[in-house]
Amino acid sequence: MSNWRDRLGRIGGGRGTGVRGFLRWWSGALATWLPARWRTLFGLAHDRLLLSVQNDDVRLLRQTQDQVAELATLPLPLEADALDRILPTSLASLPRWLLLPASQVLRRSLVFPVAAGDRLREVVGFEIDRQTPFTAAQVHYDVRALGRRGDQLDTELVAMPRTALDRALAQLGGAAGALAGADVVDAQGQATGVNLLPAASRSRREDPLRRWNLVLVAVAVLALAAAGWQLLHNRRAAADAFAQKIEAQAGNARRVAAQRRQLASLVDGQAFLDRKRAELPPAIAVFDEVTRRLPDDSYLEKLSIEGNQLVLIGLSGNAPSLVGRLEGASIWRKPALSGALQTDPTTRRDRFSLTAELASGAPASSNPTAKPVDDARLP
């Protein structure tokens, strides 16, 4: 359990305990589950070159997420480009750190409130006078977070006199100007993860693949945006096609509904006419009844059926008797003369105008093929 805690402490040491520190620690912890090649591909690997001074030589080590491997041993002092000459291109871009022995530094365990985690280095700067025999101006220092206990944060202060660090840097010669940091070996021989090198003296080597990585990221973002736009375009096209299909079907449905309403109106109108026609006697039955009831000295000039009104106009030798002859018929009722009788000077007969009200429910004509008429003229 302590080894696991130490490993996580090395990943998140000195990174704060706030949200940013937690995210950095979390991403680093996730990176430990990925293969080394994947970590390098995604830029999650934190490999570095360690320079450990021993007597008159310097050991060149490569630290990865899982192990530390020795690459070479070089004599001191080093020239500025000494490492570039012996390192392959894949390793030349790694950050270079000076690895200091534990005997040259002072380490103190400190406990602070968790709220001080985001400004841990500033807070520890006020404790150097009380925790070490030096002032803050006499040492280079760093602090790392070891863990949390409730609302308290366990930390470790690592300090080194400025003169001692300057001597260690001078031993390296020209290679000291390319250092990205100065770390310290702990009791187990592992790097603690602190950086005692002043910020102004730290070298930041440009990754030769950084530009290509940025280009690939930009291409990936553009490809993702293009894919999203294409997906959105396809969705909109499908929605438009579906809307057109629905509109076409809706147009057909509206036409069918209009035709159905028109057909229903025609059926209702025909049914109404059929009911009206069924209520009145057919014209052929009226003609037949009038023919049988008029005397031989009478003839018609006009027979008209308007609605349920029967109008007879003609000449008769005895017009007043026509009312009596027409009474009693089953297909009309209330026969009566309308207007005054006039004597025709040519035929010496009375010109009459006679009306009657057709009765509903009268018997139908004996000729089923006969059609009713609205107006008929007889000589």
Extract low-pLDDT stretches. Answer: 1-16, 364-379
Q: What is the CA-based Rg, rounded?
A: 59 Å
- Name the overall outline: rod-shaped
Overall average pLDDT: 79
The total of beta strands comes to: 14
What is the number of independent domains? 3
Q: Can you give the helix content as a percent range?
A: 25-40%
How would you classify the quaternary structure? single chain
Report how far apart the termini are. 131 Å
Strand coverage percent: 25-35%
CATH class of the largest domain: Alpha Beta
Q: Number of helical segments?
A: 11
Please give the largest β-sheet: 6 strands, antiparallel
Q: What series of H and E elements makes up the topology?
A: HHHEEEHHEEHHEEHEHHEEHEEEE
